[in-house]
């Protein structure tokens, strides 16, 4: 490409109008369900939709909730910098959905619970339940902070879109329709926002392909830039993205998100039958794959467009997360309303994720903390408390720690891995006792946070991350001494004084393995402690759990003790 102007292109009136429509429609959905269900005041109706949802809207809601603005903005920049191996997440998604639908959903659905952590008290003890609830609250606050702040900051710095205005608007609108309409409003709003995400992506793909000379040119340019080298079978766990880290590590990471996460399970148990819950997951898989393909192709188109002039290296933008909005403003800036459509696409992901988080946090806070402390609560009081918690949860999301898909998935891995191990211990190993569960959870959390925080303090070197080359040959650079073809910025900022020995081994492990580390630590420690302190017999477990456990006979592999 030819030299580029680094000036910021700002939003126009039509862009703000299109963007505002997203908030208006989402709010209207909340009002609709508030009016429709004004006579149904039970907390179960508010939190799990009366368990009458069908699989269609739930499937769209599941996809929208976890394909956030971090995915819309961050995944294309991942492909731009590291290549199309990101598409291998499709394999991980497939394994995750199968395991969730066949292993975890039957247990939670048949148990008749509202909070997934209620299972832990029925299976182990209240201490384990409360500990898991607190971990989930921390995980969700951190993750939602990234989802809200990172895209807003990227859009602000590239388009001039108001930073704190968009953040507060997101929180207020989500709180509004969550509080008024409960889970039904969240699910149907997510379904609408999923459609907006797809329309926004398709607009970028069509205009981007036209701007870069067509699909064939995108393919050849990406191939010449090594962006199509997808399959790397290097078994080293230190490599950031390989076939094994994405398929194996990605499966563990996303299974922690889908299999035992309150936000996911709450939608599944809101379905009218277990069959609908499973269908929702399988149709959600189609949505995940579609969004993944859109993200990968957007990244390849963006690389082709900037093959000769990388705006990040040329310092037109300050961070990789700004690549996608910068690209959108270049190709759509002259068309009134279309940049606003893309921002609506990005914020649809944000709205759906924040709404899901608010609703899930309100559920676990009420079910696992408030109701346990306050004893018998009337249905009307329970509903008012649930709505009040939705309002209060809005303020918990505005202190974000970082950026991009790696930050989001690292948070899920560090917290979700031990939780996955804990639930697996209870479901797959009926011999496991409460002491083993508590000890395993402590060790799993310690291991995953050790490696995660260490990696944050001592980032992996380029030998592990393998960033691909970027060029500035076609750029007009203010600094004439800057090389035409340079190393990627990630290599220029990685030198850290007093680097520990662990920094190039334990701390350099792929972020996708954080979940596996926590999972294995929790599972192994839980079984060892159980073996040392005495088994838990099936007839000691609550009757409500025996049927769910019995459906998992083919999965049981407990060889430590005899199962009675």
UniProtKB/TrEMBL annotation:
<feature type="transmembrane region" description="Helical">
    <location>
        <begin position="511"/>
        <end position="532"/>
    </location>
</feature>
<protein>
    <recommendedName>
        <fullName>Solute carrier family 5 member 12</fullName>
    </recommendedName>
</protein>
<dbReference type="InterPro" id="IPR038377">
    <property type="entry name" value="Na/Glc_symporter_sf"/>
</dbReference>
<keyword id="KW-0472">Membrane</keyword>
<keyword id="KW-0813">Transport</keyword>
<dbReference type="GO" id="GO:0005886">
    <property type="term" value="C:plasma membrane"/>
</dbReference>
<feature type="transmembrane region" description="Helical">
    <location>
        <begin position="281"/>
        <end position="306"/>
    </location>
</feature>
<feature type="transmembrane region" description="Helical">
    <location>
        <begin position="55"/>
        <end position="74"/>
    </location>
</feature>
<feature type="transmembrane region" description="Helical">
    <location>
        <begin position="130"/>
        <end position="155"/>
    </location>
</feature>
<feature type="transmembrane region" description="Helical">
    <location>
        <begin position="16"/>
        <end position="35"/>
    </location>
</feature>
<feature type="transmembrane region" description="Helical">
    <location>
        <begin position="441"/>
        <end position="460"/>
    </location>
</feature>
<dbReference type="GO" id="GO:0015293">
    <property type="term" value="F:symporter activity"/>
</dbReference>
<dbReference type="GO" id="GO:0070062">
    <property type="term" value="C:extracellular exosome"/>
</dbReference>
<feature type="transmembrane region" description="Helical">
    <location>
        <begin position="161"/>
        <end position="180"/>
    </location>
</feature>
<feature type="transmembrane region" description="Helical">
    <location>
        <begin position="86"/>
        <end position="109"/>
    </location>
</feature>
<dbReference type="Pfam" id="PF00474">
    <property type="entry name" value="SSF"/>
</dbReference>
<keyword id="KW-0739">Sodium transport</keyword>
<dbReference type="InterPro" id="IPR051163">
    <property type="entry name" value="Sodium:Solute_Symporter_SSF"/>
</dbReference>
<feature type="transmembrane region" description="Helical">
    <location>
        <begin position="241"/>
        <end position="260"/>
    </location>
</feature>
<keyword id="KW-0812">Transmembrane</keyword>
<keyword id="KW-0406">Ion transport</keyword>
<keyword id="KW-0915">Sodium</keyword>
<dbReference type="GO" id="GO:0006814">
    <property type="term" value="P:sodium ion transport"/>
</dbReference>
<feature type="transmembrane region" description="Helical">
    <location>
        <begin position="192"/>
        <end position="210"/>
    </location>
</feature>
<feature type="transmembrane region" description="Helical">
    <location>
        <begin position="407"/>
        <end position="429"/>
    </location>
</feature>
<keyword id="KW-1003">Cell membrane</keyword>
<comment type="similarity">
    <text>Belongs to the sodium:solute symporter (SSF) (TC 2.A.21) family.</text>
</comment>
<keyword id="KW-1133">Transmembrane helix</keyword>
<dbReference type="InterPro" id="IPR001734">
    <property type="entry name" value="Na/solute_symporter"/>
</dbReference>
